[in-house]
TrEMBL record:
Residues 4-205, 224-427 form the dTDP-4-dehydro-6-deoxy-alpha-D-glucopyranose 2,3-dehydratase domain. This is NDP-hexose 2,3-dehydratase family protein. It comes from Streptomyces daliensis. InterPro entries: EvaA-like (IPR005212), EvaA-like_sf (IPR038153). Pfam families: Hexose_dehydrat.
Length: 438
């Protein structure tokens, strides 16, 4: 497929199936109910996921204690991308997949994107297309297979297998799938709300090819120094996490249409009824988390010793398995911090928000996990900085890393968070190349 033909193909796939998402009262969701003992929002099968409560105490930041609803999905799913060479060029099998939380519903996803409940057919629906390439005995050559976390602010210890598999033999073609090169996917990553989160996280785990990103020898910090910094960050934070019944979560109110905070900040839990003719089940109901603003996820970068470096942060999020992961320089929803000033605001947020257009090397609006979040979008940016804005001696909680070093860490689970992986996918695919304005 030519890249220029992709928008028409995606539009044709949208016309080929009926899709509809309608808001529904939480008490009226088919198959879902509030458990009498805990108030948790659960599915009648006991599978898929549940909405429960979390009590959090941290040792830094303007907010040290809070409680919140959180999604508990203990089973690991598969995010799998199938690769195959055509005329000596590696292509990737991508799916036009409907997810109820995406504002435009249909986006480009990996070949397989399924929870264990889905591919084990708890819903008694159709099987997952191409699943045999990732879980069957005759699957192809595995190139990448790593458990990665997802949004630690909204998921409790959720992880999915991120897989890249090279196909062996012929692959049957399906009308809702297409073969694209990595360069083509990179071009599509320049567009808003086109390549979904699950595709981005898998692409971030591809090994970077060639020395363009710099080598360990060229990095400001050696791999051992980087590992030591991250280990220190994990060890120094005092974080207490306790799961509690949803009915005991303070600061939130349950209404007919949502569970939300009275001040309107952060997010709300809402319900939807879904029609999706192309999915394994043609219709269902479910809760979704709906954020109350647009997020910002950005890397500040500089050329240090002639090599691009990213300013990474050590982020503590309540839902992480290891409590701390490496994130971008800035990861925040500006609306939630607008009432705060000075040191109480996220470090470098105002630098990113006030960046001159000539310093922005990449900017696109991308959807977050459309299967669990409603209209969750973030502005993803790479912003060039100078010594006065982002000093070579990084402040506490931050460290300069090369893209190659960050990519190498994706070979390990629970090291690089999903927002940083989304940005890394833009480098891996060639959607952005970090150059100096000078």
């Amino acid at each position: 497929m030519r890249t220029a033909d992709f928008p028409a193909w995606l539009e044709a796939r949208a016309r080929a199936h009926r899709f509809a998402v309608r808001r529904a009262p939480l008490d009226g969701l088919d198959g879902w109910s509030f458990a009498p003992e805990t108030g948790d929002l659960v599915h009648r099968t006991g599978r898929f996921f549940s909405v429960t409560g979390l009590s959090v105490t941290v040792d830094e930041g303007p907010y040290r204690q809070w409680q919140q609803p959180i999604i508990q999905q203990p089973e690991s799913g598969i995010l799998g991308m199938l690769a195959k060479e055509f005329d000596g060029v590696l292509h990737f099998l991508m799916q036009a997949k409907m997810e109820p939380g995406n504002r435009n519903l249909l986006q480009l996803s990996p070949t397989v994107q399924a929870t264990r409940s889905n591919y084990s057919k708890v819903h008694q629906g159709a099987g997952v297309t191409y699943l045999e390439h990732f879980s069957g005995p005759a699957r192809g050559r595995v190139l990448t297979d790593v458990l990665q976390s997802e949004h630690g602010s909204w998921f409790y210890r959720k992880a999915n297998r991120n897989m890249l598999v090279e196909a062996v033999g012929d692959v049957d073609e399906h009308e809702d799938f297409c073969w694209l090169t990595l360069g083509q996917i990179g071009e599509l990553l320049k567009l808003d709300n086109t390549v979904n989160m699950d595709a981005r996280t898998v692409i971030a785990c591809f090994p970077l090819d060639g020395p363009a990103s710099g080598t360990t020898r060229d990095a400001l910090h050696t791999d051992a120094e980087l590992q030591s910094w991250f280990t220190m960050e994990r060890a120094r934070h005092d974080v207490e996490i306790e799961r509690i019944p949803l009915s005991r979560v303070s600061g939130w109110e349950r209404g007919e249409s949502a569970i939300a905070r009275p001040d309107g900040r952060y997010f709300r839990v809402v319900g939807v009824d879904v029609e999706a003719a192309s999915r394994e089940v043609k219709g269902w109901s479910q809760p979704l988390f709906e954020p109350t603003g647009t997020g910002v996820a950005a890397f500040l970068y500089r050329s240090l010793g002639g090599v691009p470096h990213l300013l990474a942060s050590a982020r503590v999020e309540a839902g992480f398995l290891e409590k701390t992961e490496i994130g971008p320089t800035v990861q925040a929803t500006e609306n939630n911090w607008a009432h705060l000033r000075g040191a109480d605001r996220p470090r470098f947020l105002d630098t990113v928000l006030g960046a001159a257009p000539g310093r922005i090397r990449y900017e696109a609006l991308h959807s977050e996990e459309g299967g669990r979040f409603l209209n969750a979008e973030s502005r993803y940016l790479f912003v060039e900085a100078d010594e006065s804005e982002a000093p070579t001696e990084a402040p506490p909680g931050f460290c300069w890393v090369t893209p190659e070093q960050l990519n190498a860490l994706t070979a390990h689970g629970h090291y690089v968070n999903v927002q940083a992986r989304s940005l890394l996918s833009c480098l891996t695919s060639g959607a952005v190349r970090l150059t100096s304005a000078a």
